[in-house]
Specification:
120 residues, alpha+beta, Arc Repressor Mutant, subunit A, three-stranded antiparallel sheet, 5 helices, 3 strands, elongated, MarR family transcriptional regulator
């Protein structure tokens, strides 16, 4: 719940998630609950191998994703999965982001912002 003194602080916008590439990765994994092979995730997010690897490392260190190493035939294959914690944190993040959008849309409709912030 936002504080009355700082209604636009949006404390739930986690910096780990908020970065554009990581937001794309988490969205992709949310829409693919069985996980995604590294190459498919790379393609969906428009990232390079190195860039995706680095973002996955950050998300893995935060406990939001899990990487499973295996083989497809004789070829090594990494599959990326959203963890239960990752799913919960991402859904919380989306709720805060929805609040940002509502607040901005309300302010745009009202022309000069919410009544509680107008000068007396």
């Amino acid at each position: 719940m936002p504080s009355p003194e700082a209604p636009y602080a949006y404390e739930g916008l986690d910096r780990v998630i908020h970065e554009k590439a990581r937001l794309g990765v988490l969205t992709s994994l949310t829409t693919h609950p069985r996980g995604l092979v590294f190459a498919d995730l790379k393609r969906l997010c428009g990232l390079t191998d190195g860039n995706l690897s680095r973002h996955l490392q950050v998300l893995q260190e935060a406990g939001l994703v899990e990487l499973r190493k295996g083989y497809d035939g004789n070829r090594p294959q990494t599959t990326c999965h959203l963890t239960a914690l990752g799913r919960a944190k991402f859904l919380d993040y989306l709720a805060v982001l929805e609040r940002v959008v509502r607040d901005a849309a309300d302010a745009a409709r009202e022309g000069d912002g919410p009544a509680h912030l107008k000068p007396a």
